[in-house]
Every structure is written in C-alpha cells, then in structure tokens.
Design goal:
Elements: E1 3-7, E2 10-17, E3 22-28, E4 36-38, E5 44-59, E6 62-68, E7 73-76, E8 81-96, E9 104-107
Antiparallel strand pairs: 1-2, 2-3, 3-8, 4-9, 5-6, 5-7, 5-8
Length: about 120
C-alpha cells in the first residue's frame, strides 16, 4: 500500500517499507527545500526523475552545491550534511535503510526540529 505524507515543501509517497529498506518518491515544489540535515544511521541513494535538484552536501568543514538533472544519482551516507532544493518542480526516488526517524536538522525554513516531520 502506498502512503502519502504531506510535507511543507511538497510530499512523499512511501511505496516500500521493510526491515531492510524504504522506497519513497519525493515531490519538491519549485522554490522549496528540505532542511539542512544529517542522519546518524540512515544511508540513502537518490535518482532524480524530473526537474532540477540543487544538492548541498558536506559537513562542518564546508558545504558544496551540485545541480542534479534528470537521470542523475547520488548517495548520502550517515553523517553527511545535506539539503535538497528544487529550482523547478522536482521528483526523485529515494531508497534508504529503514530509519525514518533518524533526522538531525541543522537549519529548517519551516521551523521544524529533529524528527521525521
């Protein structure tokens, strides 16, 4: 069963949830972004389906920004600071380990704190 989760930046469709992995489709509205965050245990891989994603990643020593076009992929390992932002409506597939609540937010334009919201 697919579960839709509304977010202030768009929505997620959870299409797989097992003890081993989670599969999601994320839709990020143009001009919106997820929080600058990292995960202590969660390991995720991303494939951009459509749109134009600005990926900010790095750590306390500095952040770099990369534009990811449709067909582009990347991996976010535990401890890596990252933010997804959409220059235009953007859809991506995320496959990760199952720790959905493993979110440590460093900055968030919507006022959210570290959690799964």
């Amino acid at each position: 069963m697919v579960k839709r989760v509304e977010k202030p930046w768009g929505h997620e469709l959870h299409f797989a949830l097992t003890e081993m992995y989670v599969g999601k489709i994320l839709f990020i509205r143009a001009g919106e972004s997820l929080s600058l965050q990292y995960h202590e245990r969660k390991d995720e891989s991303v494939y951009v389906l459509s749109g134009r994603l600005r990926l900010t990643s790095g750590g306390a020593g500095g952040l770099a920004e990369t534009i990811v076009e449709p067909g582009g992929t990347f991996r976010v390992t535990p401890g890596t600071w990252h933010r997804f932002a959409a220059d235009e409506d953007t859809t991506l597939i995320e496959v990760s380990t199952p720790e959905l609540d493993d979110v440590v937010r460093l900055e968030d334009r919507y006022g959210r704190t570290s959690s799964s919201t």
